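Hi everyone,

Forwarding the result from last night's run.
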Amino acid sequence: MENTRLLSYILFFVLITVFSVLLNGLLLKFSKTLGIRNEKDTIVRWNTQAKPSVGGISFYVAFLLSISGFSFFYGNVSIIGNQQFLGMLASCTVAFLMGLADDAYNTKPLLKFLAQVLCAVILILAGIVIHIFPYNWANYLFTIFWVVGMMNSINMLDNMDAITATVSVTIIIAALLIIAMNHNFSTNIHVLLLFGIMGALIGFLYYNWYPSKLFMGDTGSQFLGVFLAGIGILYFWNSADSTGHLVQSKQFFVSILSFIIPICDTTTVVINRLMRKQSPFIGGKDHTTHHLSYLGLSDSQVSLVFAGLSFISMLCTVFIIYYIADWGYIHIVIFGTYFLFIFGLLFYISKISKPKLFDTR
């Protein structure tokens, strides 16, 4: 039964991947102006050539197709009464619509921020809350910070071809492995969603790998941000270890290692811009991805470096949850050192690399 269900998931993943390639091909063919965000007066992008930013539409379509497949995979399991699932659906829908509006009309930053807070509040009302503090109000505030921060981090990470999609795929794989290790792979309703979004991302990468033909836009990054933030709460922040216990410091490291790339990139950019007395919320070619390129790496090599770092961190996450039952100070030192090394390395690179004066991309 378990093997049959796994084969069904794999088949669904393959079908969604093919569907994503075809859908993005149609969007690329018929899109004219929607989501073309490279005008000099609207946004600063690494690639100066105007390209449609409609790839994120395929993410949401795959999300809806995954939901429609629930009756086939889970039989009589009802999702109508599943409060957490309905919260994910509502929050992702709000994020998708907000991103779509931003790609089409360049919405005000305050409106975007309020929509992001609304996404976080919806998740909280649905019971998707980070449990790390002894006080509920503190957990609620931290959950809002996590969701809003991750929506902006994923959006900021979408600054070079293939980066956000590849990093998101590794986060999804980590979540699937954690679900499998908890022995509820065949009954967990989020598995189908994870396979569906992963298929959509890989199909999108067909057009987003350098040299890209398509961007995901805010439509994709905002949807991905809240989706990954919610999955992060359910399976990283609130994931019990092999003993069935929740350990706050262990939860913390599982989460920051899983999301190490968006966290390190956003933190580096914010620190550097504040040091230059610039706003952290403006666009710019000063991300860690850009600085690696300034050192001489090609866009494809930068994507592979970030995918590799994310994959190694994913293995650390799985190792922590599955193999370390007796969590102690030694583990905090080991994995804390690893995180600080990655962050320190990327931050150091941002200090020593210099922008190319005549970059024509």
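The chain has one domain: 2-352.

Cheers,
N.
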